[in-house]
Amino acid sequence: MTPATAARPLPTTHEMTGAQYAGRACVWCEAPLTQGRVLAGQASGQIGAHVVGTPAYQCLPDSGCQFLIEGDR
Question: Which of 7, 11, 37, 41 would bridge 72 by S-S if both were Cys, CB 3.0 to 4.6 A apart?
């Protein structure tokens, strides 16, 4: 998977829902990613001295919130 260029900064891992953190929901619109997903980037955060990070996924191009993201550019 090739990362998409995020039109806005990714949320931190602390701002993500459980489904977003697990890669089951879109990082932007929280829609379920049952039809596929595209890597939006690496979300990061910190718990004490431990840096945590997870891949953040978004809706497929031409579906879901991708239309909203394209409008931000």
Answer: 7
pLDDT at residue 6, rounded to an integer: 54
What are the distances in angstroms from CA 42 to CA 7, 28, 63? 14, 13, 21
Distance (Å, whole) CA 18 – CA 11:
13
Token pair for 41: 């980037």
Query: Tokens standing for 10?
Result: 């990714």
**SS3 for 65?**
coil
Q: What's the whole-number mean pLDDT along residues 3-14?
A: 76
DSSP 3-state of 25:
strand
List, in sequence order, every residue forming a beta bridge with 51; answer none if it has no partner. Answer: 46
